[in-house]
């Protein structure tokens, strides 16, 4: 992993991490705003319990023990899933579209763009570590059954909530990644697992 | 033998003298003092509308032989009111603690039972030895959207009560205030003050979970605060201080991304550097300082650039002219 250990690679990684942290921070702020608007315009109860099947959960055990590679791969899988989920929400939004929701549609599209950008950013980080970037599954998960209008709204709530959590987790993950290497000289946590 | 008997404030209590008949001749005592016969109905002791002061050791003796026939320790108290519960994470991401108290005392022993549920999972909140009404819990998961539900039940011999708190992981994050806040004047800079502080020692990993800070400062003579928010670093230079005025300064901390601001730190005082005066006094300064009557005046530690050569006022008193305002305040106290 000579390339991964070179000083320029370390600098590039730190640079990518800092930018990623800023991206994730901005994304989180926008998702939180979107969540507020979504709850209000869809007439939902913000504290409602929502089933989150098919939505990547940010919750993780032993987070501090994860390797850098694990972090990047889990983040990438999550944001790719969110990209698909948000695209679906946008489509559903357009189908239900009323004038009042046009702003919501735009906000959703803006967040979708940021999610795509962040997924790409994560791919860059993985490439830097000479890690293969996992291909997107050709078939993907089967499309979920068509939900009723209310179920769609509740699902949207679940998606945005988890996305907001992920955005916070991603900031933490990138900070871990950006930490300077220990004495071994190998990038911490980015080395192959034993 | 003696066993406690718990009764509510305001209750009517009837004590029987063990197995003695109602018409037996007995003597009742409380804490060794005879109880007047007016409180007796036969051999029964009647206490109406008991109050807290009637708690004590009640004993019943057979009339002639003075054999002890019955003894009980009466404890008058109240059932518990709804307890006050709070949970907070000042050591994120390690875990959180919950602490509780009763709004009013019950005057009898209480037991507290706390349960913590995360989704469907029961978690154990380990009780702290000190302080007593507190327990802590380690996070098993991070970044969960599932809420935590904490239920505290308080039970005593006269009743029980409970309260519940529901919250999510991020909402209860509140660091302890910054520590070791120090404010110093900057030499040759009459409008600057250098402030520095440290992360609270309870925050386990400031590198991975950095804190941001809020500084507030004002001269003692004004009521309105100036605020500065700092996204990194543990120092800041105030550059717009009023020359010669003593300032009060405090700092608060917050996780960069989640939770709420800490309480304000301990306040520190500082006065910006002032130039050594060329003349000792002006009219205004004499008016300000001649009321000072104390000769041993302790200056606050972080501040005074005080030139002992600047002597004002009557012979025995040496006062820094820069501290005129503070001296005026002290002199009001001593006059």
TrEMBL record, chain A:
One GO biological process term: positive regulation of axon regeneration
Species of provenance: Erithacus rubecula (European robin)
Cellular localisation: Cytoplasm
Underlying gene: Cntf
InterPro entries reported in the protein's UniProt record: 4_helix_cytokine-like_core, Ciliary_neurotrophic_fac_CNTF
Any Pfam family matching the protein: CNTF
Gene Ontology MF, one: cytokine activity
Keyword Cytoplasm set for record: yes
UniProt name for this protein: Ciliary neurotrophic factor
Automatic annotation (TrEMBL), chain B:
Entry-linked Pfam families: fn3
Stored InterPro entries: FN3_dom, FN3_sf, Hematopoietin_rcpt_L_F3_CS, Ig-like_dom, Ig-like_dom_sf, Ig-like_fold, Ig_sub2, Type-I_Cytokine_Rcpt
Primary location group: membrane
Taxonomic placement: Eukaryota, Metazoa, Chordata, Craniata, Vertebrata
Transmembrane region(s): 310-333
Record's keyword terms, sorted: Cell membrane, Disulfide bond, Glycoprotein, GPI-anchor, Immunoglobulin domain, Lipoprotein, Membrane, Receptor, Repeat, Signal, Transmembrane, Transmembrane helix
Species annotation: Erithacus rubecula
Protein name: Ciliary neurotrophic factor receptor subunit alpha
Domain (Fibronectin type-III): residue spans on this chain: 177-277
Lineage: superkingdom: Eukaryota
Membrane-topology descriptor: Lipid-anchor; GPI-anchor
Family indicated by similarity: Belongs to the type I cytokine receptor family. Type 3 subfamily.
GO aspect biological process, one term: positive regulation of cell population proliferation
Ig-like domain ranges (all copies): 10-60
Subcellular location field: Cell membrane
Keyword Ribonucleoprotein annotated: no
One MF annotation (Gene Ontology) recorded for this entry: ciliary neurotrophic factor receptor activity
GO cellular component terms given for this protein: ciliary neurotrophic factor receptor complex; CNTFR-CLCF1 complex; external side of plasma membrane
